[in-house]
Amino acid sequence: MVFKVTRAIAASMLALGTAMAHADATSDTIDKYVTFSGFGTLGVVRSDYGKADFVGNVIQPRGAGSNSWSANPDSDLGGQANFTLTDALSGVVQVLSRQDANGQFKPTLEWANLQYEINSDLKVRLGRMVLPTYERSDTQNVGYTLPWVRIPIEIAYMDAGLHSDGVDVLYRVKTGSVTQNLQVQLGRTAVDLPGVEFTSTPAAVVVFSDTLQYGDTSLRLVYQKYDGSGFPEVRLQVTGAGLTYDPGAWFVMGDSNYSQDKYFGALFAWYVSGGVRLGRFAPYAIYSTTRAQSVGTSGLKSLGNDHTVAAGVRWDFAKNLDTKLQLQRVVLDSLDDTASFADVGPGARVGDKTNVLSWTLDFVF
Amino acid sequence: MVIINLAAATISKAQIADLYLGRSDARTPIDQPVGSEIYVEFYKKVTGRDSAQVKAIWSRILFTGSGVPPKQLRDSAAVKKAVAANPKAVGYIEKSAVDASIKVAVSID
Questions:
Q1: Peptide bond before A283: cis, by omega within 30 degrees of 0?
Q2: How far is CA A310 from CA A30, B25, B35, in A?
Q3: Domain A2-364 is of which CATH architecture?
Q4: Interval A70-124: pLDDT, tens
Q5: Chain B residues with CB inside 8 Å of A145's CB?
Q6: Per the CB < 8 Å rule, is A80 touching B63?
Q7: Potential cystine with A13: which of A87, A91, A255, A272 (Cβ 3.0-4.6 Å)?
Q8: Which of B49, B52, B63 is opposite residue A94, by nearest beta carbon?
């Protein structure tokens, strides 16, 4: 039912926006009601590991096999329309094409919501919103907004940062120099659980998050609870904490989350990353890992375990364009659906070390 | 020079940085053309960031449906006019362009 409402919101906004745009013939006023923007990434990845495919996010079934370049993990394209209906009412519709759980690049609706501003500190949104599960989960597909080629896959292992259809409330509170951005979200989502078989399992989700910002420092705390009665049952709680310090000339950030599910057990994933800005170049390094903490009813003991050391550089070579080169060494610490790989073959061993080279070109328009 | 409306309360450099990086909605920031000399100087001195970094920050806000980048006006004369007309507007212009229609909130050197 909520999905139907989301579709209706998207369709009516497109119709209303187009109607308002036609009503005012000059291009100046069209801009007032609807603006278009978009983003994309062209990327190729090469892995030296012959026994599994390196993937760009946890739901991709195929990625880069050994000694061949693959554009599948990171390439994507997105288009967005922003609507300003009144001073307080606006909307957004975003369509994304990226390799999905079926290995296809079918366009999906990522964002489709109406936002009502009660005052400058309080907003309500209705429709589809991407879940704020981990740092940057809401822009994970917009390469231009990330300092790295992709978000370290380990942090996303238990949830691929999917969207939820429902309602949320955003409240901003300022106490002295500290600003708190509070969010409560309720909706229905489809969860992609570890293992290629368990994709798009429907679940209800509740999110509470608080981002405390003080100048160039921000601390993000989030709690999510998913409940679904399919197979396997989804009784998942994710608690996350992330810290970023970014004064511009350099940055350091870390993110972590602890996931607890009845079937899959408990996992703890985290990463730290740092980088500097040298003119138009921004080199960076990342250490990321995920480790199973306890066993669920599935009986899998070391779900997802791997760790990665990555280093790369971003070059903002032209307006609205950047290119990145990233080299990472991934160590498989498990054969139970290790986070960075799909399609793990029979020759794989715990302790296998792999080298992965990624090159991407990001653009926004 | 960062300028505000004659009737507006004063504003600090940190608050201006917050407005232009999308961390605060308290007032309405106005930009000069992206990539122009004054744009680059303003962002470097007030936020410590270059044009690409600023674009990446606003892209994050735009592509999460959380907001839109500051409106861009043609030149300092247009910025002055907009700030003089709106008590919540904030803009930046050259020192030589300052006149009595607006007041200076923070001087950027």
A1: no
A2: 45, 36, 32
A3: Beta Barrel (2.40)
A4: 877 788 999 999 999 888 999 999 999 987 767 778 898 999 999 999 988 999 9
A5: 56-57, 59-60, 63
A6: yes
A7: A91
A8: B63
